[in-house]
Amino acid sequence: MAWRQIHRWLGLMAGALALVIGITGAVLALDPMIAAWQARPAAADLPVATLVERVSATVPGAEEIRRLPSGDIVVYGFDNGQAVASRVDPDNGQVLGEYQASPLMRWFRNLHRSFLLGDAGRITAAVVALSMLLLAISGLVLLQRRQGGWRKVFSRARGTGLQRLHVVTGQVLVAVLGLSSVTALFMSAVTFGLIDVEHAVEPSVVSTAPATIPTPAAAAPLQLLQDTRVAELRKVNFPAADDPEDTWRITTDRGEGWVDRYSGQTLAWQDATTAQRVQDWAMVLHTGESAWAWALVLGLGALSIPLFWVTGLLLWLQARRLVPRIGDNSALPQADTLIFVASENGSTWGFAEALHTALVGAGHKMHTSGLENFRAGATAQQIFVLAATYGDGQAPAHAARALERIAQTPATAARVAVLAFGDRAFDAFCAYGQTVDQALRAKGWATLLPMERIHQQSAQEFARWGEAVAQALGQPLAIDYRPRLPATTELQLLSRQDFAGGDDQPATILRFAWAPQSWTDRLRGRGLRHFAAGDLIGVLPPDSAVPRFYSLASGWQDGFVEICVRKMPGGLCSGYLHGLQPGARIQAFIRPNPAFAIESTRAPVMLIGAGTGVAPLAGFIRDNARGVPMHLYYGVRDPQLDYFFGTEIEQWLKEQRLASLRTTFSRVPEGGGYVQDALRRDADRLRQLIGDGAIVRVCGSRTMAQGVAQVLDGILGSISLSVQQLKARGRYAEDTF
Questions:
Q1: What separation in angstroms does the CA of 89 have from each of 51, 76, 93?
Q2: Are 687 and 718 in contact (CB under 8 A)?
Q3: How far apart are the C-alpha atoms of 135 and 140, rounded to whole Å?
């Protein structure tokens, strides 16, 4: 919990100042790029002595030559008593024009470094830098938890659009922000004298003139200047004309040297200190000076800061909005029924509110609270725990210490039921809810119902669990859960392809037209976002606020939305969809399913499906224009009744979008049985494919998917692999119903 609290409150409290730093940092990142584009750099191997000769011949009164990080050569001196800074062409020493740093960039630099507040602003900037470092560290810890481990930190983000945007900007920021924060802290320490980068003592050197003062040596005989190349030059200072003891002084990346103006001998040399070298690197890494490509990276990272902060703020506000104000909430000692909730983003509270309201309507005195407040009064008869899982099995932030609370609470006569919420896309599906259930059982609490799991806040699964609750309590319950749905868009049916099916369960392939989102649509939350085969489409049947989800057999680039629907006995939505004729319109929205998607790959792909579960697999094959080797194992009952996408599959074989096909027909004599049987017959081939790095996608009924996993475990055991190992490596995913 500590990491999430650090991350959340640092982000919220330091956010406004971080916005200033982010925006000004993005503007300042332009400076090195513009300077590099406009620069007239010297040849890298040009001797400094030659450069000095050329400048001396064309710029009277020159006192100092500087090589800027961009490579430009600037000469400082006096002209008729007036200080002058001039850009020069290093090839001939000719003046290119007056040099003046941009006043606008200077203003942005002061705003970035000190908020235009002098030393107080510099201290504030240092504090913000420290906050950003802690934000980066806490964000990295949370990112690996959410993504399912350190190896998946930079894998594709999962969740809602807002969550994915926050994670993606965090992935961009975590390295850049951490590095920028560390370098900013180092430079702040130098500014305030906490780190000394200079030598403690400079050498005492003077040019010693002989009795008869000769003409000072020209630049060429000065050996140190002759041996030093312009590529490493920082600056070179001319000896003052009115001070016969003054020396040449040259500063390079390696250190500083002093040269006698008469003899040309090197009088002293000091290597750069370690602190100086670190400061040099810190300056480059923080500003991008002398490295325009890195400046571009820094600019993009800086632009991500406002987006990261805004998405984080919106997620926090969204979570607060999702937590309802529970009505009729009795004090815990007087309640006969208790509900305890653990929710990371607030959505689980909506289910708790629906259950609470239904039980109040059934005559119960209710108390609902967060799981961190777990305890039971003497009047409690039943306790419900609704627990969501965060990331790879973690507790939601507010409930981080709930297990300690449960361990300290003596069991009473109350019976307990745990409802776990999660996402099958994560390996640790509902793991926290299971941990809570085990803790309660270990403590001796009696069971009202076995623990049940809810996938992706499924209203249908929650309704079925509500029926089980009513049966366990021996009384009817009117649970009216209405999920908060995204904006829907209207789709028009283009065509339908009907199949007789079997057992009075006909099926149809429905193809809908859709219009891509415009920018106006996106801003207003309208239209259908870009989608991929394997994503889910939520359909709202008339007079229902509960969507039904179907896997997509097409991607946005196909130009249509396609699904395969089997008509279920008493099915509200499937019956509605089967009654549609071309020209009819429906309301729908997209729910991404990135864990099931196939990333760009050249590895073999095994597609295993049965019945209507072939739909997303057909979409993968349809979009396989690159010819990735895809192998389909497909089981149906009867090719005359339910061989979905059969014509297309044969065509895809000819086009080499599909490399091989194995079919089984369970209701046909000699039809090959079930798809699991086809896998057993192909055991040697499967071991070879998976040993070569193949990824696996399985779609169909939950029973079929379990059978497939058992068969594959048996096949892969001889090569020391398992389905669980493939899942952990991101090579195996299921979409079940």
A1: 10, 14, 5
A2: yes
A3: 8
For 56, counting Cβ atoms within 10 Å of its Cβ (0-12 exposed, 13-18 middle, 19+ buried), the class is middle
Q: Are 605 and 732 in contact (CB under 8 A)?
A: no
CA 334, CA 354: separation in Å to the nearest integer?
21
Token pair 């993606």 in the structure block, residue: 168
- Give 439-473 pLDDT, tens digit per residue: 999 999 999 999 999 987 888 899 999 999 999 99
Amino acid at 233: L
Element (H, E) at 187: helix 161-191
In this structure, what are the phi and psi dihedrals at residue 175, rounded to the nearest 5 degrees? -80, -45
* pLDDT of amino acid 169: 76
Query: What DSSP assignment string belongs to 320-374?
Result: HHHS---SS---GGG-SEEEEEE-SSSHHHHHHHHHHHHHHHTT--EEEEEGGG-
Query: For residues 487 and 589, is the Cβ–Cβ distance under 8 A?
Result: yes
Record the tokens describing residue 421, joined without a space: 């919420």
Q: Are 613 and 701 in contact (CB under 8 A)?
A: yes
CA-nearest of 369, 325, 386, 357 to 479 is 357
* CA separation, residue 373 to residues 88, 399, 400 (Å): 73, 9, 11
The contacts of residue 16 (CB under 8 Å, 6+ apart) are none
Is residue 171 within 8 Å of 154, Cβ to Cβ? yes
What's the burial of 646, exposed, middle or buried (CB within 10 Å: 0-12/13-18/19+)? middle
Looking at this protein, which amino acid is placed at residue 310? V
In 3D, which of 598, 663, 608 has the Cα closest to residue 636?
663
Q: How far is CA 598 from CA 107, 697, 733, in A?
A: 48, 9, 10
DSSP 562-590: EEEEEPPTT-HHHHHHHT--TT-EEEEEE
Handedness of CA 402, 404, 409, 415 (dihedral sign): positive
Contact call for residues 230 and 68 (beta carbons, < 8 A): no
pLDDT of residue 1: 44
DSSP string computed for 146-177: HHTSGGGTTS---SSHHHHHHHHHHHHHHHHH
Tokens of 664: 């089984």
Q: How far apart are CA 153 and CA 143, in angstroms?
A: 6
pTM for this prediction: 0.59
pLDDT digit string (tens) for 270-286?
Answer: 999 999 898 888 888 88
CA–centroid distance for 133 within its chain: 18
Q: Say if residues 375 and 331 touch (Cβ distance below 8 Å).
A: no
C-beta of residue 245 within 8 angstroms of C-beta of residue 206: yes
Cα 336 to Cα 361, 451, 467: the distances in Å are 14, 21, 20
Rounded to whole angstroms, the Cα distance separating 709 from 736 reads 12
